[in-house]
Amino acid sequence: MKFPGKTVLLAGALTLLAILAGCAAKGTGSYVVLLRDSDGKVGKVAVQSAQGEQVLTEDMRGAALDGKREPFIVTQEQLKRDFGAAMAALPPAPTDLRPLLFPSGVFALTPVLRQQVKDIAAQYQRLTEAGRSVDLSVVGHSDSTGSPEVKEKAGRERAQNVADELGKLGVPREAILVEAHGDRQMVVPAKPGGEPENRRVVVTIR
Predict the structure, then answer these.
(1) Cα-Cα-Cα-Cα dihedral of 109, 113, 117, 122, to 10°?
(2) I need a surface site. Which of 17, 20, 27, 68 has the fewest CB within 10 A?
(3) Closest-CA residue to 194 (of 143, 140, 147, 153)
(4) What is the pLDDT of residues 105-148, one digit of tens each?
(5) CA distances from 65 to 3, 51, 54, 76, 121 (A)
(6) Edge-to-edge, what's the strand order for the sheet holding 7-12?
């Protein structure tokens, strides 16, 4: 991964979070910082130039963009001073809410599910009232019972029912993306009779 000589970069695990110019602390020069992502994982960033290469694999480690200097520890104070404005400007990471679990053979919302969807709609309203621009991803999943077509249809119907309820509760339809993954992303292994944990709709706030 190569960077221009006058760039200051803040990097998360495998994801570039912000690129700024000329705001590094005096004496440090332009540099890269590797941070943990929202799941606590640390990726890897390689800093390359004609003068050398350094690889960052540890949280809160930095490397100058000329590639000559060995990686160094970045303190919280230094991180805040050099990247505080960039970090404050970043959009919040997507948040997966508690999965909505459906009984076997049920696609309509039960009273319990309706309350959970109501809670999601209320959270959406709080975020928008606070000035955030929010979209909701609604993804339906199924257990391992039935043909691929049946499982895909089951996941989509459950997701659509959740999306429709969100719409009735005031969430704009254009803010809702509906998808279905069938049983392609099961959270527990397949077993006879299906798996309740896999019959779920996952709502993600973006």
Answers:
(1) 140
(2) 27
(3) 143
(4) 999 999 999 999 999 999 999 999 988 888 999 999 999 988 99
(5) 7, 10, 9, 20, 45
(6) 15-21, 7-12, 31-34, 61-64, 72-73
- Catalogue all structural domains in the chain, each as residue range(s) with its CATH number: 7-89 (no CATH), 95-205 (3.30.1330.60)
Handedness of CA 131, 40, 84, 68 (dihedral sign): negative
Rounded CA gap, 103 and 81, in Å? 51
Q: What DSSP letter does each residue of 28-55 carry, written as one string?
A: T-SEEEE---TTS----EEEEETTEEEE
pTM score, whole prediction: 0.61
**Six token digits for residue 106:** 């049920």
The per-type count for the chain, helices as H runs and strands as E runs, is 3, 12
Distance in angstroms (rounded) separating the CA atoms of residues 38 and 139: 21
CB 17 within 8 A of CB 79: no
